[in-house]
Amino acid sequence: DFFMAGDVSNQEPELLSPASFTELFVACLRQIRPELKIEVIEDLELKFSKPGDDRKPHQAFLDNAFTVYQKDPEARDEIIDQFIAGQLETLDKSATDDINPKRIIPVIKDRQWLEDISISLKTNAEFPIPLHDEYNSELQVIYAEDSEHNIRYLNGDNLDQLPCERNELLAYSTENLKDLLGNGIEVMGGDGIFMVTAGGNYETSLLLIYDLWTANGPMEVKGQHVVAIPTRDLLLVSGTDDLEGIARIREIAGEMIQENAYTLTPVLFAWNDGRFEVFEG
After folding, report:
1. Nearest CA among 32, 58, 26, 29 for reference residue 44
2. Comparing 116 with 4, which gets the higher pLDDT?
3. How far apart are CA 9 and CA 2, in angstroms?
4. Which candidate, 120, 172, 189, 132, places its Cα nearest to that of 156?
5. If DSSP states are collapsed to H, E and C, what string results for 176-225?
6. Pick from 94, 91, 89, 81: which is nearest to 29 by CA?
7. Is 140 within 8 Å of 110 (Cβ atoms)?
8. Greatest distance between any 2 Cα atoms in the chain
9. What is residue 152's three-state secondary structure?
10. Of residues 132, 64, 58, the one with CA closest to residue 95
């Protein structure tokens, strides 16, 4: 049963404090890029810059990295390496504002994410509010540029670089997402309960791919499709007329929100006239 969690060892490593995690992150960053000027602002917050660079230092918040580490302490080094790669890519790319139009993709986030980031960004004018559209009463579509180690959220400063009209951006970016994923979308399960995977980063964005949710799509369910997206890397599917299936994906969604670092929402959504809306059943 692919919904069952793996065995968990009773022996858990001692967790680093935020201060110790920050210290380790800085040590690893110095080892990889010793030329950087690094300043620790406070626990889980850094600024760093390259020699001779007269721009504002790059600001890095380690809260997400620390949260992921807390959920999976044994993967500490891998997590730090991954976050450093993303931060360095942002630092090195910030010298240019050029956007690769074929890498513009839509990212589904919950409304609370946008509200939280809007509040935090108001205190720092250097980081404008991400370019976004409302998808439904609970979800937002955030537009970003995908890269090897990172995603860069677009903002109003990027409007003149868009390869399409602003009102065409959702359709354009969704086509990019389909091209990016290619044959990487996998459907597992059966008997009215499915899990859909797409590499671990864009599962929630699959809600935007129309062909998955039509009568001729790969998942046969009772009634209309109902989905749970408790985390960014988990998409569960059942049907509006399958009470047992709905109960199952709701249960799994609740469990995953407790266990996962990248949580989204416990709300279920049902396919209705070409898009997903909040499911009240």
Report:
1. 26
2. 116
3. 19
4. 132
5. HHHHHHCCCCEEEEECCEEEEECCCCCCHHHHHCHHHHCCCCCCCCCCCE
6. 81
7. yes
8. 63
9. strand
10. 58
Region 123-133: mean pLDDT is 73
Task: Give residue 113's identity as a one-letter amino acid code.
Answer: W
**131-135: long-range contacts (C-beta < 8 A, 24 or more apart)?**
131/155, 131/156, 131/158, 131/159, 131/169, 133/169, 133/170, 135/108, 135/207, 135/275, 135/276
CA gap 172, 208 in Å, rounded: 11
CA distance 114 to 139: 9
Q: How confident is the model at residue 222 (pLDDT cuts 50, 70, 90)?
A: very high
Q: Which amino acid is at 226?
A: V
Q: How far is CA 258 from CA 18, 30, 226, 251, in A?
A: 20, 34, 21, 11
Give, rounded to a whole angstrom, the gap between the first and last alpha carbons of the chain: 25
Nearest Cα neighbor of 126 from 38, 26, 39, 47 is 47
How many angstroms separate the CA atoms of 190 and 41, rounded? 50
Residue pair 158/131 in contact by the 8 Å Cβ criterion: yes
Interval 68-82: pLDDT, tens: 888 889 989 998 998
How far apart CA 84 and CA 127 sit, in angstroms, is 20
Q: Residue 155: what are its φ and ψ, rounded to 5°?
A: -145, -175
Return the percent helix, strand and coil in the chain, to nearest 5: 40, 25, 35
pLDDT of residue 152: 83
